[in-house]
Design a protein that fits this description.
heteropentamer; A: alpha+beta; Rossmann fold; OB fold (Dihydrolipoamide Acetyltransferase, E2P); 21% helix; globular; B: 236 residues; alpha/beta; 6-stranded mixed sheet; 5-stranded mixed sheet; binds adenosine-5'-triphosphate; binds magnesium ion; MetI-like_sf (chains C, E)
């Protein structure tokens, strides 16, 4: 276990009682506004001192109220991206960025100054004061500051919320690298399903201060009964390897031998990747469809049909590539006579596998 | 009928004047409020319209200043009380000279600093400087002089043993048992130390004049004498 | 100009500047520490410290001067001990500086404390997450952010030190060239009939010096404000 | 024209020169971080005084530097949701909410207190101080405060950025109502395509302080050459009326006579709606597909095929329902021999028209 | 206890409290206005106002008292005019309050100014977008947020007013029951041989009063801090 957290704390009218363990990787804290995500992260950072707490990161006990252990915040080797920036108003952007870096000379860097400035696109801002930055610029500097502090544990509270899509797409891979190349444990708060799908090793869903659910990203996302993320969040996560890069810009993945075509994936042949296929992007057909623009058609057998209260139903189809979820109307399910054990074809447009939904693993 | 009288008196007269006032109040039934402050303060306040009926200052110059402004009822200025200057030393310092022998002064003064009231501004300091000048000691002592804003502060320095000696009024010196009078300066060494009393122009109401008369009385003289003041025979 | 003031007066001006400067400077470090403790810590006797700090304001200066004399005089409790190690305040300009510092202390502490209390603790927390120890946080975040209060406090302290009279004259008396500050000189002139003009000359000098210090401080304050980004 | 804005302003190293006009409705300001969105809104609010500015809202001139007109901020009748909350720390949530309301008794309410508290889910927070709120809770209170100020112009700077999907879904319809029922002009900053598609009447795209593009939401979103929103943003916007509510929960829309099936749409029969069909959700087929779970299949004629640098191509298909965009791979386009004038079928899953993408108009 | 202090001393305590209270209260409104102007406006002569405000700190109290006497005395420029409309400061307790207020003014202004400068103008902007006029913003946002500084300033002003001596005795003299405040009484005792004990008794009284005021202010400050949410 890379992260073990147990926190019990009370505010006026709000009780936090959270306990979870997460393996090596990036743990997403997920939950509606006010469910206690920031409170958990603050306790992990040692910024609040809960009545009861036990926080262990990579075998290092950061706090254990039972044993009377309490490592002060500044010795926890953190990189905390706060929900509200918290840049030092009296320092230039450059000094803000270098603040933690200078204090932790002994630890290895996870990113060089130039790298961070480049990825975050803040080269032009270095000599400005925080008061002269836009909302998104502040947020980017805050991310950079945390990364440059040579952290051994990253805490990120909605780090990308204020950014535009292209900028997010540039920064996201960097969190992947921290997770994979540097094996840094990361606690990450987000409301974005794309980010969950792409980054999360483990998802911890909070609800009113309690743990609602813990599981791998694949488990949580592919559970049709788990709705707090909204219906669009449901989808399957397939494991695949990069098989070939085609000349027309498509990349062929192999999911347990099944070929999947995707727009260019920036990983070398042989690289293992995760592909999320959102349930609402999958079309089912009883016969092998012909003459469709969709490139990925996989045969399989219906594992289950679940219909909720609304007009929709989630059909799980076991294919050679893995279990695929399709969100279709009940009407279609009836028309196609889909039921357990029925053979069918899952049609996925190559492009419907959004680039954000391809993560390395 | 009981009337109100307001007296502005130099701070150094506080006790003696208070004694006189309580006796006078008892006798006459009038009510007196007395304000005590530095002579310069009082004089200036009277100049700017202070509600004073009688002023008693420790400083002839300030009285003259008021008189020149026409603020004093001329027929009612008198000078009944005076004082002496004394050299005081902390009791802790062994007596090296007999009281009254000024010649040994330089010896005492050599041993350390001498506290005096401001030698250019405050009467006690001015008198002291004059005395030392008359004795031809001033130039030698000057570097050792520490000046305070009033005599009492000078006395306090002596009492606390911070200075070797101080030049203060004899009235002050006699009461504080932490100091000992090492020498008295004879009256001829400096200008005469007097406390002129006057009625403010336009305030010469019967009860005020009654008080002025009482100040001439034996009872008043006794009160002042008890506090160590010199009672002068003639009004000047 | 040189004729406008006599050499004695010039000496008083110089001395006042020296005394005020060192009083201000000497009070800064303890001022910051006390202000920090009062702003951020809860400790036993906090209110007593608070009262002690304000005492010089509450007591008439003469009383403060007298208490200083009793404690820091050569015969005093602390003064006696300090004398052993060669530190003497009595009748020295250092004593005038001490008196001025003590009198200015509450003003300094209050200003700094106000500024410290206005600092968002979240910024200090952020510094801690970045690996800054308490001390480091103090010097890199708290101190720079409290500069407005520090500066305001120092201005008040300097001004107060320039004007301090009662405690100074009681504690170190009035020795020309040593402890005869501008206020003492002004006081002396005011004791003599007709001394007003001379006193007013010195008052004008005081005002000029104070105005200079104030304008300097405003320039600095603007710079700080620009730095902290509120301007 | 409901809103006319012309602003010229210079910061250190950043020049803002923005000029646009927008018709009645909600105008989305769109652009990457630091492109000048907040600066524009601040100038409209009168919080910054640009060198040159002309702001006219519903025929009321709020500023005109040429004519020397400058209406002070507090007389502009605004409801400004700031990017960073800006709640009054010394007031309870309730007092924060009522602050503007009490000052503008003369103007009509756009929302009642109870309504706002209900929609935003902040009933439990009313007696708290802002310092006791979570990030998303602060944001919600800030929205409520602006709405309760009885505004005649709403400025909203990424109002939903800090909120989770279900909460967003609850609040979004409210902005629609403000736009439609109250005919309030709204300037709205967002990075979310879903919000653009759903809310925007007009989109003003900013780029480095200049207007990059102005157009209706349909125009901008369906322009395959307009990429700042990321490839997923491209899609067609169809005009339709609610035709029938079926018993199984599906709603039938009629787009110029073409039936479209959608999950329940909360509008009565006859109501006009806008439906966005994201290009990446459309599959093309040369033959009429059979036995597919997708309910909506529309015949049409290829209007154009555009391929960019990557593996994808955007095919515009003119159908009776309107022009539909499909994002497919170049490989498929070649395989299906799609070219101008070719007849084909557009396959849209009913559920792929996400509820957020259905707006009223 | 009643015997511990004589009636005259009790009168001095009462008078001091009255004077300090009214001095503090009277200085608040002009203090806030001046502080706001200095903190937020740029106007011609700003530095002159700033110097004027600090003057009572820079000048020896006697000089300030003298200037007050000259201007606010019955013969004075302003005092004469005020007398016409029945307002007299000279030699009344009101004059003592005026002197104390003037002496405390710089302390009050500085504290309030510091607090105003620490307020994020963005909050005031937010209030303006919600329809608040300048005046409304001032009263609903600026004033509540500057309460810490206002409180600190009032504490300093009260303390200073309790301790003010030089300017008071110079301006309004030392009239028992009228203008004889605690410091004047302490001074009077110190002028009398052997009066130290009596003076010390009054010093203790001063300290008790001040401690009470300070603790009260701390309690209030805590409440304010909790309100503003920094606690
Ligand atoms: N006070 C200022 N001084 C100098 N530059 C500023 C100031 N305020 C904003 N800027 C700059 O102006 C540009 C536009 O800022 P603005 O806040 O309008 O961006 P934005 O579009 O709202 O971005 P975001 O989406 O990140 O909030 C940015 O480059 C920013 O750094
Ligand atoms: N200082 C505080 N005092 C009282 N209640 C608090 C305090 N801080 C947080 N809370 C409450 O605790 C709950 C959890 O807050 P927290 O900030 O952890 O939420 P969150 O999950 O981060 O939400 P968001 O996504 O909105 O940021 C909320 O209901 C909040 O109102
Ligand atoms: Mg949070
Ligand atoms: Mg912005």
């Amino acid at each position: 276990m890379s992260v073990e957290v147990h926190i019990r704390q009370g505010f006026r009218g709000f009780d936090l009682d959270v306990r979870f363990e997460a393996p090596v990787g990036l743990t997403v804290l997920f939950g509606s506004s006010g469910s206690g995500k920031t409170s958990v992260i603050n306790a992990v950072a040692g910024l609040s001192k809960p009545k009861k707490s036990r926080v262990v990161v990579n075998d290092a006990v950061l706090s254990d109220s039972a044993a009377g252990v309490w490592v002060p915040t500044h010795q926890r080797s953190l990189g905390y991206v706060f929900q509200e920036g918290r840049l030092f108003p009296h320092m230039s952007v450059r000094k803000n960025l270098m603040y933690g870096n200078g204090l932790a000379k002994a630890r290895p860097e996870v990113a060089s100054f130039d790298q961070v400035v480049d990825i975050l696109g803040i080269a032009a801002l270095l000599e400005r004061r925080p008061s002269e930055l836009s909302g998104g610029e502040k947020q980017r500097v805050a991310i950079g500051r945390a990364l440059l502090a040579r952290p051994k544990l990253i805490l990120a509270d909605e780090p990308l919320a204020a950014l535009d899509e292209p900028r997010k797409a540039e920064i996201l891979p960097y969190f992947e690298r921290l997770r994979d190349e540097f094996s840094l444990p990361i606690l990450y708060v987000t409301h974005s399903i794309a980010e969950v799908a792409r980054l999360a090793t483990t998802v911890v869903a909070l609800k009113e201060g309690k743990v609602d659910r813990v599981g791998t990203a694949a488990e949580v996302l592919s559970d049709p009964s788990f709705t707090p993320m909204g219906p669009r969040a449901v989808g399957a996560v397939l494991e695949a390897v990069v098989a070939q890069h085609h000349e027309d810009g498509l990349t062929e993945l192999s999911a347990n031998g099944v070929a999947l075509m995707l727009p260019e994936v920036g990983h070398p042949t042989g690289h293992k990747v995760r592909v999320r296929v959102a349930a609402h992007d999958v079309i089912l057909s009883r016969e092998a469809p012909k003459g469709l623009s969709a490139l990925n058609i996989v045969e399989g057998k219906v594992h289950s049909v679940r219909s909720g209260g609304g007009p929709g139903a989630i059909v799980s189809v076991d294919t050679k590539a893995g279990r695929i979820l399709a969100r279709i109307t009940r009407r279609s399910a009836a028309a196609l006579e889909l039921s357990e054990g029925v053979r069918c074809y899952a049609v996925m447009k190559s492009v419907s596998v959004a680039p954000q939904d391809i993560g390395t693993r | 009928r009981a009337e109100q009288i307001s007296i502005f008196a130099a701070a150094s007269l506080q006790e003696a004047v208070s004694d006189v006032i309580s006796r006078f109040e008892e006798k006459s039934g009038h009510k007196i409020t007395a304000s005590f402050a530095g002579s310069s303060t009082l004089a200036r306040q009277v100049a700017y319209g202070a509600p004073a009926d009688v002023v008693m200052l420790a400083n002839v110059k300030w009285m003259t200043y008021l008189n020149n402004k026409g603020l004093l009822a001329k027929e009612n200025i008198n000078t009944r009380f005076g004082n002496e200057l004394a050299l005081v030393v902390p009791v802790s310092i062994a007596a090296s000279s007999k009281e009254g022998v000024v010649a040994d002064l330089s010896e005492i003064l050599k041993s350390g600093k001498v506290a005096m009231a401001l030698v250019e501004a405050v009467p006690a300091g001015i008198y002291g400087r004059e005395a030392l000048q008359s004795l031809g000691l001033w130039e030698g002592i000057r570097p050792n002089v520490v000046e305070t804003d009033n005599v009492r502060a000078a006395l306090a320095l002596v009492a606390l043993g911070e200075v070797a000696a101080g030049i203060v009024y004899a009235t002050d010196a006699e009461v504080d048992d932490r100091v000992r009078i090492a020498a008295r300066f004879t009256a001829d060494l400096h200008s005469k130390i007097v406390y002129p009393t006057a009625v403010v122009t336009g305030q010469d109401r019967p009860e005020v004049l009654e008080f002025m008369t009482y100040m001439e009385s034996d009872a008043a003289r006794e009160a002042f004498a008890n506090r160590g003041f010199v009672v002068l025979e003639e009004t000047q | 100009m040189t004729e406008w003031l006599g050499p004695q007066e010039w000496a008083a001006v110089g001395l006042s500047l020296k005394v005020a400067f060192w009083a201000m400077l000497g009070a800064v470090v303890p001022g910051v520490l006390v202000a920090y403790a009062l702003a951020r810590w809860d400790f036993f006797g906090k209110q007593i410290v608070n009262v002690l700090v304000h005492l010089p304001l509450v007591l008439p200066p003469v009383a403060t001067g007298y208490l200083l004399l009793v404690t820091f005089g050569t015969q005093g409790l602390i003064g006696g001990a300090l004398k052993e190690i060669g530190v003497v305040f009595a009748f020295r300009w250092t004593g005038a500086a001490l008196a001025a510092a003590v009198m200015a202390f509450p003003l300094l502490v209050r200003s700094i404390r106000l500024s410290i209390e206005a600092i968002d603790p979240k910024l200090e927390q952020a510094a801690a997450t970045l690996g800054a120890s308490r001390l480091m946080v103090f010097f890199t975040v708290t101190v720079p952010l409290m500069l407005p209060g520090l500066l305001a406090g120092m201005v008040l302290a300097f001004a107060k030190a320039m004007g301090e009279f009662g405690a100074t004259i009681t504690f170190v008396s009035n020795i020309p060239g040593q402890t005869r500050t501008l206020p003492s000189a002004i006081y002396a002139f005011l004791q003599v009939p007709g001394g007003e003009t001379a006193a007013m000359r010195l008052v004008v000098v005081s005002i000029i010096v104070a105005a200079g210090a104030l304008i300097l401080s405003e320039v600095l304050a603007r710079r700080i404000a620009r730095k902290v980004g509120q301007a």
